[in-house]
Amino acid sequence: MKSMITRAGCVLALVCFAVSAGPAQERAASPAANDPRVSLKPGLKNAGVAISNMELIANVPKPPGFFDPKAPAGEPTEPERPQGAPEEADTAKPGEKPRPQRSSLNYANSDLAFQGNRLFAGNFSGVNIYDIANPANPKLLASIVCPGGQGDVSVYRNLLFMSVEQTRGRLDCGTQGVQEKVSPERFVGVRIFDITDIRKPRQVASVQTCRGSHTHTLLVDPKDAANVYVYGSGTSPVRPGDELAGCSGGAPDEDPNTALFSIDVIQVPLAAPDKAKVVNRPRIFADPKTGAIAGLEKKREAAPGVQAASETNQCHDITVFPEIGLAAGACSGNGILLDISDPVNPVRLDAVADKNFAYWHSATFNNDGTKVIFTDEWGGGTRPRCRATDPPEWGANAIFDIVDRKLQFRSYYKLPPPQTEQENCVAHNGSLVPVPGRDIMVQSWYQGGISVFDFTDSARPVEIAYFDRGPVDAKQLVTAGHWSAYWYNGHIYGAEIARGLDVLRLKPSEHLTKNELDAALLVRFEEFNAQQQPRIAWPANATVARAYLDQLARTNALPAERLTALRTALDRKDRAQLEQAAAEIQSLAASATGRDAARLRELAAALKGALAPAP
Amino acid sequence: MRPARMPLVLVLVSACRAASPGENAPIVQPGAPGQPSRVITAEAAAALPSPAHTAADVRFMQGMIGHHAQALEMTGLLATRTSSDDMRKLAKRIEVSQADEIKMMQEWLASRGEPLPDPHAHHADDAALMPGMLTREEMGRLAAARGPEFDRLFLRYMIKHHEGALVMVRELFATPGAAQEAEIFAFASEVEADQRMEIQRMAAMLKELEG
What we know:
The complex is a heterodimer. Chain A is α+β, with helices and mostly antiparallel strands.
């Protein structure tokens, strides 16, 4: 045992040598090493916190039934400490041998979905449903116990969808697993619950699939009122055909029905969700000319060392943007762009590879549909990949522009400060922050915390706010951190694997003015599933006009006296001045370039809108 | 190494309003589709059984530690034998990933009270090697090679080595009752994804080298 550790030590020494000799730049040398997020105090419940330009307004520990009583990282559920009571020690007493902690993935919090005042928090054991009418005080409405996957959730009207991939998954939501190799009780695929009675959801359908569902994407087709669609992305081995008819996992040239090299398109009739079924397994990796199923195999990059993307046979996650008819697929070895105007038959428009990417994980469009951010989940999310020795372009975001429906690489963005060996960290799930005139994303990085960054200039992303806790444990890596962080109706909700639900609020700063934030607060959704991006629209009003004025001031697109005059006119609601200004700004827009041209156009509309009576 | 410094630490817990414990929120265990749901107590929910790890899980972790250790021995040969930056970059990614995964597997075994493998297990007789592992003779041949010849041999051997890891994952998932626990399911899936990608990367590099 001992010598094994020594061996590992030798190996690590070699790794360090390779780092200093390698081409990758050391992040420790960057100014990020001065970041307050470096060296935060460890602890499950009392970790040190570094926060910038945002505030944490609530933390709700995991409820009973969603932690392993035997594992410390799974029990942040004890009653709140009374005011003034001494802090509990998170670590063992001196002299006491610390018990090895088990990272309790079985009870890990995961993805989030939103509907009205309700938040659905996925968990490896099921789902917790919260009332967030008062975001500073989320109230648990009900918990669903039903393990079998990561707990990827989506919600549409009275239906709640959940991904199941683990071989332990059962049709009856039992927790005991399935021991047999082939069993009629096993379920992997997409579950559908009816949540009409929110305090007693019931399962209405279990759509079995060949590779289960690691993630899924809800797709509401604007042209199809009778159905809703689900794209299921399965990444597990193919089930035996005697467990689910039609499943085989042969090589694509020998097995034309192979369940590899496809996604599952599930059609859910809204009038009869129990009739939901897989209606297509489109060959989105096929070669359009030859029809060969493994079509990306032939796409080889010229440069040596650039991966060939040959065996991309699955997507990890797909983000759809129905209003523009596009989807971005993060498909293990490739990032792909799909035309989804026919939801049942998505058509691939482009595929890219990246030599720095280990695993294409998820995608987020900007609101104009002109950019896509892909994440690389190097290490799978449970390992530390933000250490000072980890290259900044590995386990990062890659930002692409969409030009003529093709993807063009612009830059990488990785959480700026290094994290410790005890913190699992890599790029993960996020969503747009709806500031008009800018592209801003809030994103989770597991124990790297939450990072908010501006990618208006896709070649130069800039961090504008963050939140981070120290590691759960000082000595060992206990899987924790933010699985997802999404903006929903004015707040940022973060699902912390071990520490529960966090609610945060952005604060005005040098990077984001109060007017810009106020404009973001105007955006309200009735439902929000991060993998189904809605087109954000802002009202044309004085708040939005002030946000654009701040941006035009930042880029020096308008002279200071002009800005002052416009702000005064808005404050005074001076009709004549605003009308005249709107016309002038409109003509300025015609000669402006880049993002400022759009901002000027939108400003002109907002100035006019500021005069109209509120609807 | 990072310089030690005093971080700006803000403890925000006290600033947060106490969250509601959600009293009376029912814990619902749904039935199969069409079947009624039942409401269970918190105690019952906490006592629900979870699948335990199995002997096959333990064998997988123990075997994979030795498997990874040999990959690191192979990358350890690389620094003095290659002149290619792309090869160095490839080796670095393998090293970072697999050294860290060895740590993870050791922790997984230790926290479950399972024995760590004999550190020399992967030096055992060739017949006892895990799938894809290099024989002594092959390791010797790799160590003796230099320059482009080393690169070609390294890629061929590492592709074979990685393919062996995929076989191990496949066998694990095909074993009844195995990989039901969340950690090992996630880890085995990650090994599959990571090494499959690296195989493709290496196949492309090999193609370049062999023209």
